[in-house]
TrEMBL record:
GO BP: regulation of DNA-templated transcription; transcription elongation by RNA polymerase II
Protein name: TPR-like protein
Origin species: Rhizophagus irregularis
Signal peptide (UniProt feature, chain positions): none
Superkingdom in the source lineage: Eukaryota
A single cellular component GO annotation: Cdc73/Paf1 complex
């Protein structure tokens, strides 16, 4: 009889006692009790591996599995068994490294990652061609953001076994991270052909994500729908479809061919999918963030904050921690609790310095508190990341103009005015004629005692405003 794929009852020979005992895994106590039960008996490594799998999978207790596997490594076993034991121990440490309850404890996380690395390396020394060891090391390198070395490990595994699915998943992740979406799509499709019934993980999720990045939106939806057909309890598919529903619902552009009724229908469908995902896994931080986003769209901020506090508790990666802080900041910003907004914007970029939306919000808080130079530095960073962003450019122009005419240091003033001129000139092209920038430019030239250019900027402002109003009037 078995529980899942793990045999429930096993017979274990005890060499010292010269007898055989029958163990029902369901009746096992804690790992400590199991270790004490066998005392000084020397049992084969394969039995310790069996117990560890039971604790890890059925009991969902990786900590106890580690204790069992550490004892197992002291037992007799073949090279293959020892390699399997080391790989399982490394995988368990890596699982603990990613577990939500350890995310706030950096020292423990680092310890788990070091242990996982050491055990995978030991397994590789025993058998350099062991596929699990190679893929495990690849995943470790991905966790360390060493994409090049991770790619080498996955490639080594694929040279040994070209159709080894875990290595193909690793390769697809790297291709996706490099924005090689066509290549990643082909790899995910290859996985789906190799194992059409695979749902954990589901290659259709990767297929849908790649299609979405390639602007093949209808096909992306079909891929996610197919994932749900194959597995109605697919949390990622429900979350991604809910995201699409919310994206349609929040389109506020009156020129979009989406009626209010359709937006409401999309919003309701999105909320239903999020609730379904949370019924399946109440601790899924990405689903909780999406639920909060749904409440945010309805301006139901108390509910949004409640969902986000739960998301913060269950955030299972640095990325999700950063995103949760950003969403909390956005909610507090909306209700004008600026101190808490400042706190969460700061922590979002402290965890993930590349979170541009959080950096934008942090810059806004700096302005509100009168830290104009610091705010200018933040918006400069954003401007260099995306020179064509009108919001960032407008704020940066205003900051430079303000500093240029108010700072007591002449060199600071001149640099700010030069920066203003440089940045505003980047938006001479027609499609970047922003009325806000025209207003600031008029002020800039007025302060510079250049009335001709000031009037020219005001005329441009008037022209752009009239064009905008005309479009609104004639647009059906």
């Amino acid at each position: 009889m078995s529980v899942g794929s793990i045999q429930k009852v096993v017979e274990i020979p005890l060499p010292i006692s010269n007898q055989t005992v029958e163990i029902d895994c369901d009746q096992l106590g804690t790992a400590g009790e199991t270790l004490n039960m066998f005392g000084n008996e020397v049992i084969d490594m394969k039995y310790w591996i069996h117990f560890a799998l039971f604790y890890n999978v059925n009991r969902e207790s990786p900590e106890e599995a580690v204790s069992i596997l550490e004892r197992g490594l002291l037992s007799p076993g073949s090279i293959d068994e020892r390699c399997k034991c080391l790989n399982l121990l490394a995988s368990t440490y890596f699982k603990m490294y990613k577990a939500p309850k350890y995310q706030a404890n950096i020292d423990k996380k680092n310890y788990f990652l070091v242990q996982a690395t050491e055990k995978f390396n030991e397994a590789s020394q025993l058998n350099p061609q062991n596929l699990i060891s190679l893929v495990g090391k690849g995943l470790i390198y991905l966790a360390k953001k060493d994409v090049v070395q991770a790619g080498r490990e996955f490639s080594n595994a694929l040279r040994i076994s070209p159709n080894f699915i875990p290595a193909l998943f690793g390769l697809a992740r790297i291709q996706y991270s490099h924005k090689a979406f066509k290549d990643a799509l082909a790899t995910y499709q290859r996985i789906a052909r190799l194992n059409p019934f695979m749902t954990h993980p589901d290659p259709r999720i990767g297929i849908g994500l790649c299609l979405n990045k390639l602007n093949r939106f209808n096909e992306a939806v079909q891929a996610f729908d197919r994932a749900i057909t194959m597995n109605p309890n697919s949390v990622p598919a429900n979350i991604l479809l809910a995201t699409i529903e919310f994206d349609i619902a929040k389109q506020l552009d009156p020129y979009k061919d989406v009626s209010d009724e359709e937006r409401l229908a999309n919003y309701c469908a999105g909320m239903e999918r999020v609730e379904l995902a949370l019924n399946i896994d109440p601790t899924k931080s990405s689903a909780l963030i999406l639920l909060a986003h749904g409440f945010y769209l309805r301006e139901e901020m108390d509910f949004a904050l409640e969902a986000l506090r739960r998301a913060e508790k269950y955030a299972d990666s640095r990325f999700m921690q950063s995103e949760t802080h950003y969403q909390l900041a956005r909610a507090y910003h909306f209700i004008e609790d600026y101190d808490k907004a400042f706190y969460h914007y700061y922590h979002a970029i402290d965890i993930n310095e590349n979170h541009t939306s959080a950096r934008y919000g942090y810059g806004q808080m700096l302005i509100r508190n009168g830290y104009y130079e610091e705010a200018k530095d933040e918006f400069e960073k954003l401007w260099h990341l995306n020179i064509k962003n009108l919001d960032v450019t407008t704020v940066l122009c205003v900051l430079n103009a303000h500093i240029g005419f108010n700072d007591s240091d002449q060199s600071v003033r001149q640099k700010a005015l030069n920066d203003f001129d440089r940045i505003s000139k980047a938006f001479v092209v027609d499609k970047y004629k922003n009325p806000d920038i025209s207003t600031v430019k008029a002020w800039f030239f007025e302060q510079k005692k250049n009335p001709v250019k000031a009037l020219a900027s005001l005329r441009l402002l008037k022209l752009n405003y009239m064009k905008k109003q005309l479009i609104i009037i004639v647009k059906p």
